[in-house]
Amino acid sequence: MSVESKNILRVNAGKAKEVSDALLCEAPMQVLINEENYTSTMRTAGHDRELVRGILYTEDILAESNEYFDYSVLEPDGLISSVNINIPEVFLCDKNTERRNMSSSSCGLCGKTSLDLADFTITDMTLRADAPFSVEQIKEMMAQMAEQQIIFKETGACHAAAMFDSAGVCLTVMEDIGRHNAVDKCIGTLLLKEQLESAVVMTVSGRISYEIVYKAIRAGISFLVAVSAPSALAVDMAEKAGMVLIGFCRDERLTVYTHQDLITLNEREN
Known about the structure:
Layout lengths: L2 E10 L2 E10 L2 E7 L2 E8 L4 H11 L11 E4 L7 E6 L15 E2 L29 E2 H13 L2 H6 L3 E6 L5 E7 L2 H14 L8 E4 L5 H9 L4 E4 L5 H10 L2 E7 L2 E4 L6 E2 L6
Helix pairs in contact: 1-4, 4-5, 5-6
C-alpha cells in the first residue's frame, strides 16, 4: 500500500476538527544480488521491480536493457520487503557491488561504501540534443507531470519524475517518497519496456543534486527540468555532459543553468 489513513486533529483559523488524513507510506526494501545483501533503501512500495531495474542500471551492474534479469520476491521479514536478483558472475565485477549499507529516501549515494571521484567528472559522453525545446514546451511537460502526481495530491508527501520523448510525449510518470527512487523507477520502467532510448527530457520534483544528474546522464537524458534549484556540482556535471539543466520551473518562471542556446525564447531582455 502506498497510502495509509490516520485520524488527525486539523486546526484552521483557530478552529479544530478531527478528520481522517491520507499519509504516504515509507518502508524499507532489501536488495540482494545472488542471495548476498547489496543494499537496503527506504521507498514507497509499488513498482519495486522497476525501482530495482533502475538501480541496477544507474549503478552500472546491468547496463544494457536486454541483460539477464532474474527478479524474485522473498518472504517479507516483518516490515522489510526483500528481493533477490540472480545475475551470472560473468556480468559482475567487484567495483559494481560496493554498496552495502542503508540508503535513505532522500539520498541514493549514502549507501555506497566508497566513492570514485571519476564519477563526479563525467566527460566521455555528450548528451547535446539535436533540436531545442521552447519554454512553453518545457512548462507543458512539467504540467503533465504535476497532473499525474496522484499520490502527491492525496498525501502532499511524494516526489515524482517523468520522462518525455523528442516530441514532448510523456513516456512514464513515477512517484516515490525518495527523489532518486522516482527517477530509478522511471528508468527501470522504460528499460523493461525497451523505450529508454526514446527518452530525451526528464522532469523532477524537488531539487537537483549530483545523484539526479548522474542518473539522468546514465539514462542519456538531454534535458533535465526541476521545480527547485540545482547544486553547483550538478550544474558543472550537466555543463560538461552537454545536458540542458533547468531549475525553478514553476508558475511563470524558470532558470536555465546550462546550454541556454537549446531553449527557444519568445523574447529576451537586454
